[in-house]
Amino acid sequence: MMKDEERLEAKTRIQKAVDARNDELRGLALRIHANPELAFQEHQAVRWLTEPLKEAGFTVETGIAGLATAFKASWSGKAGGPAIALVAEYDALPEIGHACGHNLIGTAAVGAALALKDAFPDLPGTIEVYGSPAEEEGGGKIIMCEQGVFDQVAAAMLCHPREADMVMRGGIACVDAKFKFYGKASHASSSPEAGISALDALVNSYVAINGLRQFFKPDVKIHGVVSNGGIAPNIVPDYCEANFYIRAATVKDLEGVKQKVYTAVEHCSLAVGGRCEIVEGMTYAERMDNKRMADLFKDNLGLMGIQVAAPTENGAVGSSDMGNVGQVTPIIHPYFNIGEVKPHTPEFQAAAGSEAGLAGLNRAAKAMAMTAFDLCADPDALRQVREEFEQWKTRQSI
Question: Given 111, 239, 333, 374, which is the most exposed site by the fewest CB atoms within 10 A?
Fold first, then answer.
């Protein structure tokens, strides 16, 4: 068992190792920030993130799980230790680029891995960086989980920028659905009776979904946009389209909510004589942070003088495919402060490339590396993390 003074000395070495690569990491984060790539198109980001890992001696595999822009980079110190996953994201949002700070997320994971190898070449364990594409839309980690990518991982973590430092803020389940409405075109003035309005089916569906809200629990969130409202005002629309996200506390709860929504949409289509096709996307599972691992991360933030904020009063409000990883292995998804900005806004995009964002990246890499060190160097801590996870899985199955 490592003594307290030895542990503190080890963590000082880790922090110095991150600082030694600080300029490199800042440059990497800014390069990705300046060249945003959408879901499953993140070829440059993958190349830039894996280059320093290859140079440091990590074994790098690209195209894992059948995804061209997914990767795994691994390095082992002493044999026989656990495999700890540091998860990277790097996809951007349409039009507003890295307004969720994935340039910082991916770089923090790489920086933590490099620092651990630099500081402890004989680390008793394996450090694995998993590059996961398409978190914003497409669910890259869901596909990776389905392919068994995380099955042998002892624990996993991802660190996300936000407006505060938090370690226990979960996420809710989510599914995206595209509603395709089909009608019959006709001249809207001279022969409207010959047409069937796909737009009426869409509008009625939108109203029906709004009417359902009062009958759902407060944690249910439903939001959508009209992506195709017809061609011209004087043509009865024969095709319209809407995209919706449906969220609930758990996957189990989500199933009941989405069936009510789907039934309402189908009936609204039939009511005007049309039909609707529902195309369902990936289901993002609820994200449950492992409390023991979160405590380790919190303690490591404390070593840097960082105070952790309490989760928001309304609890989990967002969704992430990291929740799917948490169904197969213990996870944490802590947040690091980059300023008073909200995700998915131009202000957040600017912060992700700002001095505050880059300073947050440095802290995140340090905290991730120190927590991974704890899990490798302290068998009791890892045992407690795994026991908590197994107990949670047992409760889920009841």
Answer: 239
